[in-house]
Amino acid sequence: MSTVRKTTMDPPIHLPLPGADPKPAAGCGVCAALERQRSEARRARNYSLATDYNVEIRNHPHARGGRA
Questions:
Q1: Global confidence as pTM
Q2: What is the largest CA-CA distance in the chain?
Q3: Are 28 and 60 spatial neighbours (Cβ–Cβ below 8 Å)?
Q4: pLDDT, tens digit, for every residue of 15-56?
Q5: Which of 17, 21, 41, 53 has its CA 20 to 30 A from that of 34?
Q6: Which residues, other chains included, contact 31 with Cβ-Cβ below 8 Å and sequence gap of 6+?
Q7: What is the arithmetic mean of pLDDT over 57-68?
Q8: CB-based contact 60:30 (threshold 8 Å)
């Protein structure tokens, strides 16, 4: 068991830039509504909410093989 205490900082963490926005499925009303809400959130500078809509669009069933 070591009694030596660490006195230096860890190296910085490097995170990648976010990827491109997911594209809504053509002809899907849910995807279209989510896209509008994402645009509204960005206009309001609520980037956290815009990211939430990206997750919803990406996870919508159309993103997984076209299931509705």
A1: 0.67
A2: 64
A3: yes
A4: 898 889 999 999 999 999 999 999 999 999 999 999 999 999
A5: 17
A6: 24, 25, 57, 60, 62
A7: 68
A8: yes
